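HUMAN: Mind sharing a backbone?

ASSISTANT:
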Amino acid sequence: MTAASQTFPISVPLKQDATIIGLVGLAHAASHFGHLLLPPLFPVFMAEFGLSFAQLGALMSVFFVVSGLGQASAGFVVDRVGARPMLFAALALFALAALLASTVTGYSGLVLVAALAGLANATFHPVDFTILNQRVSAPRLGHAFSAHGLTGYLGWAAAPVFFAAITAMSHWRTAYVAAALLFVGVLALMLVQRDKLTTQVEVHHADRPVEHSMAFMKLPVVWWCFAFFLFSTMTLAVVQSFSVPILKAMHGVSFEAATLTLTAYMLCGAVGMFVGGFVAAKSQHSDRVVALSMSAAALLLALCGAGFFGATLTMVVLAATGFAVGIGGPSRDMMIKKATPKGATGRVYGLVYSGLDTGFAISPLIFGVFMDRGWYAATLLGAAAVLLLSVVAALGVGQRTPAGT
């Protein structure tokens, strides 16, 4: 198995790199926007269709299961047909999911929307990183990964505001029609700029031995990468799902203040991603940068869970945790790149990033039990402990990555 004979220059003009990074960043923001296609309107669905919290939670389970299974498979397709067709298909599927959401009349329709959105979401990481790794010059890859992570956070931040504003001004069904048009607009831009999104595909030569397409799964480093995403995402899921009720229960803060803290966490994460791009561009030891940043975040989470601080300082420290995690984001992606065998970018990124979906799927189930029993401090301490496991995984990746890659 080898790459196609087509090659792209190692060093390209800044404008070209910036255009590619911008296009991929926009696509990534769209995927994170689609990630929150349903949750912002959960209260509306409860009132409109008489749904329970358990039913709403199951919708996200459907999303993550479909996304996780699809992501592990999508990487194989990306390596065979290229990233660009898969990107176009994913944006079209998100547009279709949003349009379908505008017409649902009950729970079964929402389940179908969740599954369709999960299928759309499945392709983005193998697509995005295949394009970035092949089309962006090496000295700018750290900044490319930084921008990629930053735009993802912005997509998360935009979705609740978008749906809340349009629903308030018109109707929730109108908000979904607008979302469908938004995805169509992004797809149209990608079609216009399609020459910037071409990638190499794997080809076989009769005079060379063919390596099995599943051979990469025998590499221990790939599974250490998967473990890193699994553990680090479990902690993120705790913060996203439970930080608001934890702050209210432990410190009696208002719903508005607790929600603002979660928003601050996301914004600090975005700032951390930006700064982390410069760190990743300079560092030769991506795994150590990741380990240090995740260790700092775990310490901050543990301090919040231990109850050493009052309400205000706890909110500040929790928000600062996002910055620590963000710092390691670009180095994390660089770490995965170094561990990826040549010609298997889509497959490796698809598999290891399915650990993200797995973490999002199982973390609420585990820590939801803690929350139901009123173990609020233990939930934060548990999230810190899981994040430390991601530190072990990151160092394990570094130890198993060939020198000089």
Remarks:
- The longest strand covers residues 2-3.
- Strands lie at 2-3, 202-203.
- Residues 15-203 form a domain with the Growth Hormone; Chain: A; fold (CATH 1.20.1250.20).
- The radius of gyration is 21 Å.
